[in-house]
Amino acid sequence: MSNGDLANALLQACQQRGIMLATAESCTGGMIIAALTDIAGSSAVVDRGLITYSNEAKMEMLGVSAATLEAHGAVSRETVLEMAAGALARSHAGLALAVTGIAGPGGGSPDKPVGLVWFGVALRGGPVAAELNLFADNGRDFIRSETVKHALEIGLRALGDTQEMGVVP
């Protein structure tokens, strides 16, 4: 499925459940919320998109702790969990998606190479979950586009709509 098809499916799944959606984005710089709001009528479901590119923004807008960032870095399981939880707590959403990663071309290291992206998902009343993906280093545009696609798929999976929408978990 294309990113547009996935975005439409996620909006429909949220609408069917009567929940709003929020995003907390770092490496995508708002591309997830853009994919969702490109669709007419998305305002019925989209609550907000928080672009938290800097560590300061993560702390101020999402409540990510300085201790987490210092101990684990911006691109980590711990940070994305706090990002997803923070987006949910600071919105009217029932579903929050968060991403933080290294889109390149620079910024990678042996421990955190270019293409490494952490995904977080939080459902109101449920646990916050994280998932790691290492995309091929096929350029910044590729990594960011694949990150958007995977985040939308994770949102559908969290709502239990993966089979119905033809998304392979």
From TrEMBL:
InterPro entries: CinA-like_C, CinA_C
Limits of the CinA C-terminal domain: 5-154
Gene3D superfamilies in UniProt: CinA-like
Entry-linked Pfam families: CinA (PF02464)
Domain of life from the UniProt record: Bacteria
SUPFAM superfamilies xref list: CinA-like (SSF142433)
NCBIfam families in the record: PncC_domain (TIGR00199)
Name of the protein this chain belongs to: CinA family protein
Species of provenance: Mesorhizobium neociceri
